[in-house]
Amino acid sequence: MVIKVLIAGGAALAVLGSAGALAQTGGATGSYAASAINSGQFTQAERILKPESQEDANDPARLINIATVYSRTQRYAEARAALRRVQALPAEHLELADGASYSSHVLAKAMLGRLDGR
After folding, report:
1. HSE value, Cβ hemisphere, 13 Å, CA-based, for 12
2. Cα radius of gyration rounded to whole Å, the chain
3. Which of 27, 25, 15 lies closest to 71, judged by CA?
4. How high is the mean pLDDT in each 10-residue block of the chain (118 residues)?
5. What is the predicted pLDDT for the residue at 23?
6. Would you tell me the crossing angle of helices 76-88 and 60-72 to the nearest 10 degrees?
7. Plot region of 51 (φ>0 → left; ψ -120 to 50 → alpha; else → beta)
8. What is the pLDDT at residue 14?
9. What are the residue boundaries of the structural domains of the chain, listed by start?
10. CB contact at 8 A, 3 and 26
């Protein structure tokens, strides 16, 4: 399964070098979440990203999105918990907006590294 991932603020290297990635969970929900995060509407993004099912709760793209929201709202412990959850799930390939593909585990590890450097 390949999940489309939109990186906030640039290309794949940006996510690997920044504290946050923006993952599109698919369809309108992902687009609305991406738009809300990019425009700094973190409360709205968090509401959009609230999982509606166990499957949603275990979606690595959704977890990366919510970790981005948590990080940008200085809720670092919650961001770390979401990223550790990504690492606990089976790895999935995430296709970035620039066409590059990374493992969900690689993205989570990179984001955790940036958070741990705070």
Report:
1. 14
2. 12
3. 15
4. 43 42 53 81 92 88 90 95 96 74 91 86
5. 57
6. 160
7. beta
8. 46
9. 2-116
10. yes
* Burial status of residue 73 (CB atoms within 10 A of its CB: 0-12, 13-18, 19 or more): middle
Question: Whose CA is closest to 51, among 20, 87, 25?
Answer: 25
Predicted TM-score of the model (pTM): 0.77
Ordered strands of the 93-96 beta sheet: 22-23, 2-6, 93-96, 101-103
How many Å apart are CA 88 and CA 33, to the nearest integer? Answer: 24
Calculate ∠ Cα 75-80-86, nearest 5°. 130
Residue type, 16: L
Looking at residue 32, its pLDDT comes to 77
User: Tokens 């923006």 label which residue?
Assistant: 22
CA distance 59 to 43: 20
Kind and range of the H or E run holding 28: helix 27-38
